[in-house]
Amino acid sequence: MPMEISAQRVTLERLAAPASDAGEILERFLGWAKERGYELYPAQEEAVLEIVEDKHVILCTPTGSGKTLVALAMQFKGVCEGRRSVYTSPIKALVSEKFFDLCQEMGAANVGMLTGDASINPKAPIICCTAEILANMALREGRYTPFHYVIMDEFHYYADRDRGSAWQIPLIELRDATFLLMSATLGDMSKIAERLEARTGKAVAYVRTKERPVPLDYEFRETALHRTVDELVAAGKAPIYLVSFTQREAAEQAQNLTSINVTSKEEKQTIVEAISGFRFDSTYGKDIRRFVRNGIGLHHAGLLPKYRLLMEQLSQRGLLKVISGTDTLGVGVNIPIRTVLFTRLYKFDGAKTSLLSVRDFQQIGGRAGRKGFDEKGSVVCQAPEHVVDNKQLDAKVAKDPSKKSKAQKKKPPTRGYIHYDAGTFKRLIESDAEPLRSQLQISHSTLMNVLVRDPEHGRRDGGYRRLVRLIANSDESERSQSHLRKRAAVLLRSLLDAGIAELVHVEWDSRPYLTVKAGLQRDFSLNQSLSLFLVEVLSSLDPQSESYPMDVLTLVESTLEDPQVILFRQIDKLKTQKMAEMKAQGVEYDERIAELEKITYPKPNADAIYATFDDFRRTRPWVGHENIRPKSIARDMIERYCSFNDYVVEYGLQSSEGVLLRYLSGAYKALVQSVPDDYKTDAVLESVAYLRAVLAHVDSSLVSEWESMLVPSEEGEPAEVPTRVRPNISADPRAFAARVRAELHQLVKALAGKDYEQAVSCVRTATREQDPGGVSAWSTERFEEALAPFFAEHGTLVFNHRARLSELTHMRQSGPLQWQVQQTLVDPEEQNLWAIEAEIDLTESDAADGPLLRLRSIGS
Fold first, then answer.
1. Span 422-444, pLDDT tens digits
2. How many whole angstroms separate alpha carbon 352 and alpha carbon 356?
3. What is the 3-state secondary structure (H, E, C) of 168-183?
């Protein structure tokens, strides 16, 4: 009997009534799929049936073949049975995306999220989290981890050298769970399947197919790249993702592509209209805008997040014909494409140059072809450049044999080159992905997570012996297991010697039980072990010292990863300055070169920090494998009060703006979270506020979303639709005042430099309801007009440390969550008769997200 389709959209939440009969659950799910118009592919249907039979499922199907629907079937089954499920992904962005998708389908009350930054509805029947979160839970709780169903997406990360442990540990520890392991590129999984079945006593179904909803065609091109792109666009094979393997190459290719015309006049006009309200206000923004207006996109990790998001949005609307990007396309990049075009088939992996693995090639190439849009996708590979040039030379000689004697063929590069040809391309297409190789690692963090559990009666599988069992049950070879056991013993001895671990006696065992020493916090994290060093050293600093705020910031920066591209640019600048200085002094060339070799990037307080850290390491072995990293990036910016764009221009970081933004974001978060409030003097809060203002000006969503996650959620029923909790930013008066001053100083800096576009972005715009006629709006013209009398009288507006003194800022509360603000402007004669008058109204729903200041006037 055909299923009756309701006029109202039916969600799985409405169908998830309690049920124990597997057949009934299957019938509900298939009925929902039919109502939605989903016709299950054979592999999907097979996988869903195996899940209903309560088997583990290894699902290896191409990109776009509906693995998400299979995962949804397992999650739906869990809710119907009253059992919890967990979905894991390698990156937070995918976790967040999956969380919101599931909220729409399963209802907000049924879905929660756990990441390093957020905990939303953590007791929900369905949890979304990163793989590392689940791995740590599995280490702490073992088989008592509260999930019956475990869905591990992108399971090929099992073989990742740095992160693979997070994909293996749950397989070992969660012996009562049912697993769904998904990826498009798994290779031979027979050994992993055998061990999983042996550990759990449950059958494993391996569902695998190479059939794609959108088939692919393949082509090896020996034409020049610009011609290849031109012909692909003409053949209707756009949008094209042009794969490079460095950010610089991707940017260069985007620039080169602007020389060919891939869009019509009408398409260019549509693009102009689509980006009309977008702010290309960073130093690299002009280049990005030029690329985009020509129908060319650029996408890599060095870009600001807002530019990457813009590329994804424009590509989803079909407005970009070519997107030049790096090989990070494989995971978490939401760009629909018809054709993947490889510029080459080898890359430098940080240690050596080698051909792409079958897995990497198929993971990237598999993104071609859009279900519902394309009948066929294409994967194209460029021949090596010298091969293309030589073929063109042969064509010229064929036309004019007299040129043969003069023709000189190009040779392949001697460095950083691996030969490949059409045969290599064919092998990568036809071969199965390499078998996944176990990458289990044992660290202090692993050991601490195992030991941190209380030795409760009935949970006799805890402690160090469980770590030994974990190693024995792993997929590592016997030789590797022996090495891991020895390492675990060394780590344990270091924890015992440091007094971090201790032996306790329990009622249920005659042998002593190893656990974490009583009194250590339960959320002790060795992944952020350097923050412990930070807290200890802060207590030795003098808060009354003039250098205290910068010393605190230097300590914070010392705990952060080194952003190599920025540090290299700092060295380059110092070397350039030193070279010019030595040339002026007449220093000999060899001596100049020798002196330049000694130059490194600025490391404030390095000797003291290194010495203190060495003492710290002697009694804290869990940081023994890490190194402190003094540097000055955030400090350098604050000391000279540089804007984000100032710093980018000074160090030539235009194509790496995203790297600087991520670093400053890390410094800001560390100042907020890792420095205890007792050490946050007013001057330290000024540093916090400065960094926040810089970040907010570049992308306000970065800080507002993170800050909202710091607000503890209230107990009670989850909201119908998940929303961000908005923090009360005035709850801490000192921090609030510091933020207001930082925003005022940003505005004054812009006015002093007559950068009125920047000034406009520093103030809050009134809504239409508040200002129907736009009378109170501040434009560049209005700022210029307001400041004209000041500059006519005084010549310049002073912006230095004196102009940033706190006594020049006055705040008066005028009502609940409302303030009147005045900032005195400093003139060269220090008459200081001019001031900025503004108001702040935190009663507005989005007041905390953008600029706080609604400007009223500038004058005397």
1. 999 999 999 999 999 999 999 87
2. 12
3. HHHHHHCCCCEEEEEE
Closest by Cα among 44, 151, 174 to 89: 151
Mean pLDDT score across all residues of the chain: 88
Residue 254 resides in a domain: yes
Q: Which residues contact 473 (CB under 8 A, 6 or more apart)?
A: 172, 195, 199
Same domain, 108 and 227: no
- CA distances to 90, 151, 162, 167, 446 from 441, in Å: 17, 22, 8, 11, 8
At 786, which helix (H) or strand (E)? helix 780-794
Do 770 and 830 sit in the same domain of this protein? Answer: yes
In a shared domain, residues 243 and 331: yes
Structure tokens at 255: 């620039």
Q: Is 233 helix (H, G, I), strand (E, B) or coil?
A: helix
pTM: 0.82
Q: What is the CATH number of the domain that holds 316?
A: 3.40.50.300
Spatial distance between the Cα atoms of 693 and 704, rounded to a whole number of angstroms? 11
Are 178 and 30 spatial neighbours (Cβ–Cβ below 8 Å)? no
Residue 698 lies in a domain: no
Q: Are residues 765 and 740 in the same domain?
A: yes
Which domain does 646 fall in, by range? 529-682
Cβ–Cβ under 8 Å, residues 649 and 242 = no
**Interacting residues of 850 by C-beta distance below 8 A, sequence separation 6+:** 696, 700, 764
Tell me how far apart the alpha carbons of residues 740 and 315 are, in angstroms, rounded to a whole number: 38
Q: Where are the alpha helices (DSSP H) in 505-622?
A: 530-538, 548-558, 564-585, 589-597, 606-619
The answer as to whether 389 is a domain residue is no
Pair (828, 812) in one structural domain: yes
If DSSP states are collapsed to H, E and C, what string results for 331-389?
A: CCCCCCECEEEECCCEEECCCCEEECCHHHHHHHHCCECCCCCCCCEEEEEECCHHHHH
Pair (674, 535) in one structural domain: yes
Half-sphere exposure of 593 (CA within 13 A, CB side): 2
**What is the model's pLDDT at position 521?**
40
In sequence order, which residues have a C-beta less than 8 Å from that of residue 814 and are 6 or more positions away? 820, 839
For the chain, how many structural domains are there in total? 5
Give the β-pairing of 178-183 and 56-60: parallel
Co-location of 806 and 766 in the same domain? yes
